[in-house]
Amino acid sequence: GVQDTVRRLSAATGRRIALTTADRTPIADSARSRTALPPGAAATVDPLHTDTYSEPGAQLSGVAPRAVGPYRLTPLERARLGKLATLRQKCAARNGVDTTITWTPSGRPVLADENGILPN
Q: Is the CB of residue 34 less than 8 Å from the CB of residue 54?
């Protein structure tokens, strides 16, 4: 589990590493059991959000593209939205707008023209 990773990181950095839930319930800790937690968090780990400060090129806030987590669509939902995207694509084509459909990591289709603009 994560306990081995926490201990390795602590040994490599010479620092205590305590991983807790948002309400400070311990998950893993490099310190001996029953050692009080530090008064505040030094960092927050949230796989569903991109670090827009220190991660180069990640200036947009929101869910990190690779961290789909609970937002991944079921196969049935993907199929249903894929059909709707295809219908929108055909409608755009009838009005002279060429579009492509791309898929997000969560399974959602995105319809856009050659400039990346979503047709209304």
A: no
